[in-house]
Amino acid sequence: MAEHVCPPWLSFTLTNAFRRRAQDPDRIVGPFVRTGDVVLDIGCGPGFFAVPMARMVGASGRVVAVDIHPGMLERTRRRAVRAGLGDRVKLHLAGRTAPGLDPAERADLALVFWMAHEVPDPGRLFAEIGAALKPGGRLLLVEPKLHVPAAAFAALVARAGSAGFVPEGEPRVRLSRAAVLGLRPAVSLDPSAANRDRT
Q: Which of 10, 59, 64, 99 is at 20 to 30 A from 4, Cα to Cα?
């Protein structure tokens, strides 16, 4: 699923105190997560967002933590268990070229934080996410300014648009470019359905 990924031994750089101050999960994802939600954390790393989101979704919700590295998933599992939230986090090992999401998850939100630029085929990634979201589901896409220029981020948003997403806003995230995208409702191309609606 990725060309250049952060190895598990560098995971401490993703969970340190500076990052917690600069990119507070409650502030960044809190406005988009509700009790009972199913949330996909694509490229979860060591669980920096997955574990706080597991708290946010409550006992009736679930976070699906997706990563290409078994070591990162193990770190996420340990953090979730330490926080008493292990039963709310489902681990999913991604494939080399795509996450391999289960459309049966029917998620409310997908978080793609600082990893879309590492994916060989972002269009395929966004299409898989769209297939796994409920109608009205959202994608929170965040990329690092240091690695992703404005034009490259706009291109990613356009690729998401080709997969059925429409921009809804641009939340402020430190050191980042960010967009919230909603999943367009599917349009029926069945002419008999249109005729039934007229009667």
A: 64
- Pairing outcome for strands 38-42 and 107-113: parallel
Distance CA 68, CA 71 (A): 9
Q: What is the pTM of this model?
A: 0.86
Query: Could you read off the pLDDT of 14-55 as tens digits, one per residue?
Result: 555 665 667 899 999 999 999 999 999 999 999 999 999 999
Question: What domain count does the chain have?
Answer: 1
Give me the count of residues in the chain: 199
**Buried b or exposed e, range 170-196, using 16+ CB within 10 angstroms:** ebebeebbbbbbbbeeeeeeeeeeeee
Distance CA 18, CA 77 (A): 22
Q: Half-sphere exposure of 2 toward its Cβ, with a 13 Å CA cutoff?
A: 19
